[in-house]
Amino acid sequence: MQEDSPVNLLCSMLLPLKLLNFIYMARHILFFVAVLFITLVSSDDNFVSIDCGSSDAYKDDNSIDWSGDDDYVQNGESYTVQTESISPVMDTLRAFTTRNKNCYSMEAAKGTRVLIRASFYYGNYDNKSSPPSFALQFDGNHWAWVDTTSTGYVYHEVIYEVKGDSLSVCVAQTTVDQFPFISALEVRALSSSMYDYVDKNYPLFLIRRFAYGVNGTIRYAEDPYDRIWRGAMGGDGLRNVGSDILPSGSSVRDEPPALALQNGITATTPTDRIRLLTGLLPSVGIPVYINMYFSEVAQLTSTQTRSFQIVMNDQPLLDSPIIPPYDNCTEIHLTNYTLSSDTTLRLVPTDTSSLPPLINAMEVFQIGDALTDGTNSNDVEGLASLQNAFAILGDWSGDPCLPSPFLWNWINCSSDPIPRVTALYLGSLNLSGELPDFSSMDALQTIDFSNNTLVGPIPEFLATLPNLEQLNLADNQLSGSVPDSLLKKKGLNLVMTGNPNLCKPGKTCTTTTASTTIPGVGSSGSGGGKKKKSSKVPLILGTSLPIFIIIWAIVGAFLLLRHRRKAAAVLSSGTNRPQASPLNPQMGKMGMEFMNDIKVNMEDQSNVELADQTNHHQQNGTTSQS
User: Fold this and answer.
1) Helix 536-572 crosses helix 583-620 at what angle (to 10 degrees)?
2) Which run of H or of E encompasses 588?
3) Where do runs of H (alpha helix) occur along 362-453?
4) What is the pLDDT of residues 187-198, one digit of tens each?
5) CA 451, 453, 455, 459 torsion: positive or negative?
6) CA atoms within 13 A on the CB side of 165
7) What are the angstrom distances between the C-alpha of 585 and each of 18, 592, 596?
8) How far apart (Å, rounded) are the C-alpha atoms in residues 110 and 161?
């Protein structure tokens, strides 16, 4: 037998260690993957549940997680209802007394099919016993007219495919002194295959969703999509039926909950009919989309049959009758029909059926108008730049221009199918800072930034806006040269008064005591800014030095006059040669020292003023004269 070499022995020793290390790492990796999987599965990204007016987070009786609305809206006031509580979610609300519209916004993946439900419970929160009416909107589309009541709550539901990367829900005031509010907002992501029998460019507004034969309401967790199925018990000529099994509805496209399929209603006798849609539709015809769900509640014998037809206004709609399957479901959808309260819709048994018609659940929707594409994307981009630059504008959300006439308060829009922003009314809004680049908003005709605290230069891009007719930048702190292209822009009414630091292009700004102004540019008397103060030291020297010279000149003149009088007196006494006055040497010495001091002071003062003026010119780009 060959003896193992040291290398082989070493390898044989290391191999188990490597294997153990691999197993150890693999266990940790598997554990991490398992934790990650559990986290992803348990995180409920498909649900957003907002308790409006609340700041609390909690789980309700249906195991749905709710959060307050602080992260979704900044405007409005929170209130608590004054009447009896009907649920914790309905105890608070947010009311809005300002702005054309107020919106909740959140991110959403483009192309996602969503269900949004907005709920309203007045609860006499304002102690006025006057429930308001107002408009409800989503993504720039009209949704519904909300008519609240003194008792009970109302909710509206829409299903649609998101067109952008976010979604918004807005309430808008439509009547004076009737202020909109909202109690709860719920967003549920649906399967992409659900409710796709209608063109994805059209929304579905829920009229009613029934679970027949159910006493109560079905929603999450029985329905994983948290649709609200209202129980509808059989009345005259109808009876409630139920199954001893729980059939699956996952085999059909719109996935009704099994509990809704376990129960149903039938006619009393095999020849009776079931009438549907009673009291649901308005007197004027509307486009509708209807889902009907059929599941047999008992396993029929060989002698039993159940078959029936859907008949609208005495006309059968199907090529073959419906035979409900046991432990399964048949879904029938009706679309592209315009129905009204005059429409009759019935389930009619066939001649060969030994059992009466049966229905388990039904959904009725109104098909809305085509979804808007929203405000022009270039304008949305420019508005976003303004909102990023000025925090006071940041809490405006929702579509800026749509639906008309519910615009953001500080803009105006065109009436195009894809509207353009044509005006910015941002005067007196306490804006501060430099103007951002919003050059993408090339449909602007009017821009008003007056009476703010804007600083920095006037952007060159303003001159490139092709439709700009009015530009008001008055009463700010703008500085630098006014772009020559802006001054030369034809058809532009340019207002820039009250900006003392602005100057003509190509020239330095000069501040003088005279009130000289550039047309449209602020003078020293205009509001909106304060002039910089000059150094006090040159001013003090400049005024005190001449006074000092004058005083010494008077003293010198007095001494000189006195000397001359004495000299004249000596001459008059007969002395032939002049006598030097004892004051003359002192006067000459003092005079020379005095004049030298004056010369030095004046040179020092000139140097100080010249240095100050040079520094001031370098710092401010202006030249001042005293």
Assistant:
1) 160
2) helix 583-620
3) 377-389
4) 999 999 999 999
5) negative
6) 2
7) 112, 11, 16
8) 8
Distance CA 524, CA 337 (A): 72
Q: 384 burial class (0-12, 13-18, 19+ CB within 10 angstroms)?
A: middle
Q: What is the pLDDT of residues 118-154, one digit of tens each?
A: 999 999 999 999 999 999 999 999 999 999 999 899 9
Q: Which residues contact 530 (CB under 8 A, 6 or more apart)?
A: 500
Tokens of 422: 């044509």
Q: In the 3-class helix/strand/coil scheme, how is 174-194 assigned residue by residue? A: CECCECCEECEEEEEECCCCC
Closest by CA position to 92, among listed 122, 66, 116: 122
What does the pLDDT average to over 584-589? 42
Q: Please state the φ and ψ torsions of residue 166, each to the nearest 5 degrees.
A: -155, 165
Distance (Å, whole) CA 445 – CA 469: 5
- Among 406, 451, 454, smallest CA distance to 434 is for 454
Distance CA 263, CA 243 (A): 6
Q: Which residue has the tokens 């330095």?
A: 508
Q: DSSP letter for 371, please.
A: P
Residue appearing with tokens 């008003």? 448
Separation of alpha carbons 427 and 444, rounded Å: 16
Alpha helices of 366-498 — where are they, by DSSP H? 377-389, 484-487
DSSP character string of 313-368: TTEE--SS-B-PPBTS-EEEEEEEEEE-TT--EEEEE-TT-SS--EE-EEEEEEE-
Q: How far is the C-alpha of 192 from the C-alpha of 186, rounded, in Å?
A: 18
Least confident residue range of 18-22, 291-295, 453-457? 18-22
Contact 203, 160 (CB under 8 A): yes
